[in-house]
Write a structure and sequence with these properties.
There is one protein chain. This protein has 156 residues and is mostly helical. It contains six helices and three strands. The protein has helices at 6-25, 51-65, 75-93, 100-105, 114-124, 133-155; strands at 2-5, 36-40, 43-47. The chain has a three-stranded antiparallel beta sheet. β2 (36-40) and β3 form a beta hairpin. α2 (51-65) runs antiparallel to α3, α2 (51-65) runs antiparallel to α6 and α3 runs parallel beside α6 (133-155). The longest helix is centred in the C-terminal third of the chain and has 23 residues, at 133-155. Mean pLDDT is 77; it is low at 26-50.
């Protein structure tokens, strides 16, 4: 949880409302519930609703994204897709939001090979990783399979 001044929270809540409206009109994006706001003596505390948001992201955006073969060739998308699994798991089981770094550390729980975990850690640390065309194609296919299996495991 974090505390934000009331004036800032009002502006953010207005922007979030507008974004929610736009997203709810889009067919390709799931309807997302934004943070719940509670006031506490002149400041605002943000908390996140746990299950509905996470399930919407997994069954909406990520289920569709699995079919976008070309994006999985990007290092950033592979990392983001894979790290979504432990982050979603933490939100669903404990109601906590974990960092990407914590998510990368937990990738082995989702049967992600050590090689992919190591590459994600290197990129997170700002190091470049190089892969040939065949290695990238194999990694893209494997990441899509792992994310699809992880989503299936989390939402059922």
């Amino acid at each position: 949880m974090s505390t934000v001044p009331t004036a800032v929270a009002t502006v953010i809540a207005d922007l979030v409302g507008r974004m929610s409206e736009i997203l709810s009109r889009s067919r390709s994006m799931p309807v997302v519930r934004w943070p719940l706001v509670t006031t506490n003596r002149g400041s605002v505390t943000w908390t996140w609703s746990r299950c509905s948001d996470t399930n919407a992201a997994l069954t909406g955006y990520w289920t569709v994204a699995i079919g976008w073969r070309w994006v999985w060739w990007k290092d950033s998308f592979v990392d983001l897709g894979l790290v979504t699994l432990p982050r979603a798991c933490a939100a669903l089981t404990d109601g906590r939001l974990i960092t990407k770094g914590e998510g990368i550390e937990q990738l082995s729980d989702f049967r992600v090979p050590a090689e992919l975990v190591e590459q994600s850690q290197q990129r997170r640390a700002g190091q470049r990783t190089r892969s040939g065309v065949r290695a990238r194609a194999r990694r893209a296919r494997l990441a899509r399979i792992l994310v699809a299996a992880g989503i299936d495991e989390l939402v059922t």
